[in-house]
Amino acid sequence: MYKNEFPIFENNKELVYLDSAATTQKPKDVLDAIYNYNIYNNASPNRGSYKLSLEATNLYKESKKTVANFIGAKIDEIIYTKSATESLNLISYVLESEFETGDEILVGISSHHSNLVPWQELSKRKKLTLKYIYLDENGNFDLNDLKNKLSENTKLITFSYAVNATGVIHDVEKIIKIIKSYNNNIKIVVDGAQIVLHKKIDVKKLDIDFFVFSAHKMFGPIGIGVLYMKNDLIKKLPPFLYGGDMIEYVEETNTTYKDNYEKYEGGTQSVELAVGLSAAIKFINKIGIENIEKYEKELHDYLLEKLNELDFVEIYFKNQKNKTPVVAFNVKNVHSHDVNQILDINNVAIRTGHHCTQPLMKYLNIPSCCRVSLSIYNTKIDIDKLVKSLYKVKEIFY
Ligand SMILES: Cc1ncc(COP(=O)(O)O)c(C=O)c1O
Question: Does 370 participate in catalysis according to the annotation?
Fold first, then answer.
């Protein structure tokens, strides 16, 4: 329905793009915003005091305001990083001094590697215990497992709001209620990379400490990520990257640092990416996130209906109601990489493999799977082409 807003499809007429959970395509609004910034306003932000630099600084600040409004945060609680991955690594480093040997971190088993490996590494550095929260048969967290694993040593809990590999949306409000009624001081880190395009998020209502996402999974450019951090934590925790812009005063042997969000934004910030991100949010707001949800649901239901008709396909968590428009499946007895190859010959682009969730794959007892992820530029015709290509896989391998 919204396909003509995305120029890539003009240039790739045959493309059936079903990998939006990996990265979304960019609408003209975003491409224009980045281009126009570069031809009208480009300068180093935050430091210069001439007109062009002040314009770049203003655009950077405006972008922060748009992002803050988008997730219900205050403007000075938004930090720009390179990606969700960098945001999560940053959190794991700056919290280091808050942990003592024997403390415990709980991690959702459905986490992306970028929200799992940094905690493993922190656990090794600080001799902490890492525990996983496992899932029920529909891919939700097993809340009894969560309750059993919470202990007086639990200092931090982290999980994906929505799972990249399966599309399952976790019941985040319920999980947070359980954690807070056990101990209000446990730090909560939520990976929002797969949710922000599909559901309105309010970090204040959720009352979480950290929230991360990437622009490129919500129609924005690759190379800019967002880190929401509660203000009192920004003030209290140490900086991460040292250099220009994040300092207060530098002497030969000692330096004092800014005590606001700027202490996490050392170096020249990318205004063009910030402008691209805010253009993406404006584009989402223009359509309305409820309309995006509605359109995606219609396509998602159609996809499930069509895949359900294929007796040679096994779908994971197909009875789960609360999902992003993502379906994980395998063609029975065929490796996902072989499926990928046949689909690709037919210009159908899906993601296959472990989806950066190897512990989840192991937990599900599968080596890998196929993942179709939909967005507003997809149509039922795309899904019909996918199904046709899956029949070709059957023809070749059975
Ligand atoms: C749930 C989730 N978290 C984190 C990431 C990492 O995002 P990025 O590669 O933009 O850092 C991804 C990317 O697929 C993801 O799906």
Answer: no
Ligand 1: which residue has its CA nearest to atom 14?
22
Find the domain containing 134 and state its range: 30-285
Do 188 and 50 fall within a single domain? yes
Do 274 and 178 fall within a single domain?
yes
87 Cα nearest atom in ligand 1: 11
pLDDT of residue 171: 96
Query: 47 falls in which pLDDT band (50, 70, 90)?
Result: confident
Number of domains in the chain: 2
Six-digit token string for 4: 């003509």
Q: Against a cut of 0.85, is the pTM above it?
A: yes
| Distant-in-sequence, close-in-space partners of 159: CB < 8 Å, separation ≥ 6 | 107, 108, 110, 111, 115, 133, 141, 170, 175, 190, 191
Whole-number pLDDT of residue 213: 98
Residues in the chain: 398
Digit-coded pLDDT (tens) for 76-119? 999 999 999 999 999 999 999 999 999 999 999 999 999 999 99
- Could you say which of 326, 356, 360, 374 is catalytic? 356
366 Cα: distance to centroid of ligand 1 (angstroms): 21
Same domain, 221 and 320: no
Q: What is the pLDDT of residue 186?
A: 98
Q: Are 225 and 85 in contact (CB under 8 A)?
A: yes
For residues 166 and 345, what is the distance between their CA atoms, to the nearest angstrom? Answer: 24
Could you tell me if 117 and 240 lie in one domain?
A: yes
Last residue of a domain, one of 243, 261, 285: 285
For the domain that residue 220 is a member of, what is the CATH number? 3.40.640.10
pLDDT, tens digit (0-9, with 9 covering 90-100), for 188-231: 999 999 999 999 999 999 999 999 999 999 999 999 999 999 99
The rounded Å distance from CA 122 to ligand 1 centre is 19
Same domain, 155 and 7: no
Are residues 112 and 232 located together in one domain of the fold? yes
Q: How far apart are CA 19 and CA 296, in angstroms?
A: 14
